[in-house]
Design goal:
CATH class: Mainly Alpha
Shape: elongated
Protein name: CGNR zinc finger domain-containing protein
Strand order of the largest sheet: 1-2
Number of helices: 6
CATH architecture: Orthogonal Bundle
Bound molecules: zinc ion
Organism: Streptomyces pyxinae
Distance between the termini: 54 Å
Order of helices and strands: HHHHEEHEEH
Pfam families: zf-CGNR
InterPro entries: ABATE, ABATE_dom_sf, Znf_CGNR
Amino acid sequence: MLATARRTAALVNALAGDRPDPAGVAAVLRAHGEAEPLDLTGDDVTAMRAAADLLREVFAAEHADAAAVVLNRLLREHTGPLRLTSHGGTTPWHPHLDHDDNAPWDEWLLASSCMALTVLLWDDQLPPGGSCASPGCRNVFITRGSGPERRYCSRRCATRERVAAHRRSRAARSADGSR
Ligand SMILES: [Zn+2]
C-alpha cells in the first residue's frame, strides 16, 4: 500500500500543470511498476488530471480527521464497492475499488489511490500525505517514513526555503540599522 501511495503522489505531481504530457505520465506509471501496455491518450490524461485534483484535497488536509472526511467523500462519490480480483489469475489476489478490472485510467487512479491512502490513515492515524510548504511548488508527498515534521516535497525545496529564510532574517537585521 505504501508503494501505491507513493505512486499516487508521483502521479498527482506529474498531472499538475495545464497540459500534462501523456508520455511523461506513462513514464511515471512504468517507473512504479505498472504493466504495459501504457498507451495513454490525451483524453485519458485530461480525465486523470481531474482525478488528481480531487486527490489533492486529501494531501491538503492537515489532520487525520480532515483527511478522513475527504476520503469518505471520495469513496462515497467516486469508487465502487470493495472487491478482490486476480485479473483472471494473472496476478495475486488484491483489493480493488474501481467498478471493473478494465476501468478507465482516471477511475483506476482515483480508486487505487483512495484505497492506499485509506489504509495509510488507518495504520498511522495521521494524514497520509502533505503538500509542499514552498510557495510556488504544488508537489504533494507521502508522509510515512519521512520524519515527524516533513513540510517540503524534496530536499531541493527545503534548501531553497532555508536559504530564503536566512536572506530574509539578514535583510531584517540590516534594515534595523543595528549592524
Ligand atoms: Zn516542493
